[in-house]
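TASK: fixed-backbone design
INPUT:
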């Protein structure tokens, strides 16, 4: 069976989250938001969350490598493999887009 793999992009407050909710409801996809991932890892006190927190506390963006590791980990979970997924706001940089290629995720646009 072929599962959807969707990426949604847009400026802050452009309605990405609202659209994701509608798509998730209609197709049963797993919603993967980088902001939610980072907040969950930080609040759980994981090693990667603590690394992200250091940058956040310094007023810096969380580096691409850390965000990519979080997204890669989330994509490897069974629910995402079984149901398909929607990436909310990822990739945000050229480096993040290249990481998708290394995971063999090539979008049809």
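OUTPUT:
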């Amino acid at each position: 069976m072929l599962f959807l793999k969707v990426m949604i992009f847009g400026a802050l407050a452009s309605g990405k989250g609202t659209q994701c909710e509608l798509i998730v409801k209609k197709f049963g996809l797993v919603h993967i938001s980088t902001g939610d991932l980072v907040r969950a890892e930080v609040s759980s006190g994981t090693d990667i969350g603590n690394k992200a927190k250091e940058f956040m506390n310094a007023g810096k963006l969380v580096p691409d490598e850390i965000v990519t590791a979080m997204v890669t980990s989330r994509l490897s979970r069974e629910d995402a493999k079984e149901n398909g997924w929607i990436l909310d706001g990822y990739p945000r940089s050229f480096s993040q887009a290249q990481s998708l290629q290394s995971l063999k995720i090539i979008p049809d646009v």
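COMMENT: The two ends are 21 Å apart (CA to CA).
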